Amino acid sequence: MSPPSTKKPEQAALLEVAAREKPEREETKSSARFSSPRPFREWQPEQGQLPPRYAREVLGEGHLASFFVELREVLDFSPILSAYTKECGQPAYHPVMMALLLMYAYARGITSSREIERRCETDIAFRYLTGGQRPDHDTVCAFRVRHLEALRALFVDTLRLARQAGLEKLGHVLVDGPK
Fold first, then answer.
1. Taking a C-beta distance cutoff of 8 angstroms, is the pair 85, 37 a contact?
2. Which among 52, 29, 51 has a CA at the least distance from the CA of 42?
3. What b/e sequence results for 29-47 when a residue is b if at least 16 CB atoms lie within 10 Å of its CB, and e otherwise?
4. Residue 60 CB partners (closer than 8 Å, separation 6+)
5. Share of the chain above pLDDT 70, in %
6. Inter-axis angle of helices 95-107 and 113-122, to 10 degrees?
7. Of 90, 89, 96, 80, whose CA–CA distance to 32 is shortest?
8. What pLDDT digit, counting tens, does each position of 64-111 carry?
9. What is the pLDDT of residues 31-41, one digit of tens each?
10. DSSP state of 159
């Protein structure tokens, strides 16, 4: 004789309906280029935010943060993206956003992960670059350690692109200097 079921018939029917009607994930336009088997948190730096409504308009086209956002179309982030292979836990911050955040912070002379976290809350350029997201200092530090070699290559490519664009100086990172 089998033990009686603890689920009520109404509950079992609801669970079956919920399992059948689970929505499929849609691939967004912004993440189509950066495909990975693992989902990332949505990252849209062009999306309006309050205050101010459109940070790029406030910063201007010539701002250094705008340059870094435009780098997402040119640089090869595949070494970083390939490290995200399985889906587990909460969705990660988008690796392209995290890489650009670190490169922008370094160009501004900010190397402390705690200071980067603070700037993501208070500085409009950092908020624009992250699309309003605020990664904490542990996340920033773990990302930096995990992708150190790939970030080095991205820094070199960024300096080459800055030189081609006619920038003699990229924040505090000089094109012809030892940094």
1. yes
2. 29
3. ebbeebebeeebeebbbee
4. 66
5. 71
6. 100
7. 96
8. 888 888 888 999 999 999 988 887 888 889 999 999 999 999 999 999
9. 566 777 788 88
10. H
The per-residue pLDDT for 173 is: 47
pLDDT value at position 57? 77
36: which 2 tokens? 């990975």
Helix%, strand%, coil% for the chain, nearest 5: 50, 5, 50
pTM above 0.85, yes or no: no
The 10 Å Cβ neighbour count of residue 6 is 6
Distance, CA of 8 to CA of 93 (rounded, Å): 40
Residue carrying structure tokens 């935010």? 49
